[in-house]
C-alpha cells in the first residue's frame, strides 16, 4: 500500500499546494485548498512518474484527486493492478 507521506511529498511539488500541504488533513478537499484543473494534471503526471503507474480514463475525474486519502487509495489500487 502507498503511504500517505508519499502522497504528501508529491503534493509539495505542486506550486498551488506546497505552502498548505503540512496543514491539510487526509480528508480535506484539495480543490477547496487551491488545487485547480492545471494542478490536477500536474499532480496526475507526478503521481504516474513517482509510482510508475498510469491513470486510466475512468480515474481521471475530479474525485480521484479530491483528497489525500482518495489519492492514496487510487494510487494503491493502480499499483496493485500494475503489479499483477
TrEMBL record:
Family matches, as Pfam families: PP-binding
InterPro entries assigned: ACP-like_sf (IPR036736), PP-bd_ACP (IPR009081)
Stretches assigned to the Carrier domain: 2-79
Gene3D superfamilies in UniProt: ACP-like (1.10.1200.10)
Coiled coil: none
Segments traversing the membrane: none
The name this protein goes by in its record: Acyl carrier protein
Biological source species: Methylobacterium aquaticum
Amino acid at each position: 500500500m502507498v503511504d500517505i507521506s508519499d502522497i504528501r511529498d508529491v503534493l509539495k511539488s505542486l506550486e498551488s499546494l506546497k505552502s498548505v500541504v503540512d496543514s491539510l488533513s487526509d480528508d480535506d478537499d484539495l480543490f477547496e485548498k487551491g488545487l485547480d484543473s492545471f494542478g490536477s494534471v500536474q499532480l496526475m503526471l507526478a503521481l504516474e512518474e513517482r509510482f510508475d503507474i498510469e491513470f486510466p480514463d475512468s480515474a481521471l475525474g475530479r474525485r480521484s484527486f479530491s483528497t489525500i486519502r482518495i489519492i492514496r487509495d487510487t494510487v494503491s489500487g493502480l499499483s496493485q493492478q500494475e503489479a499483477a
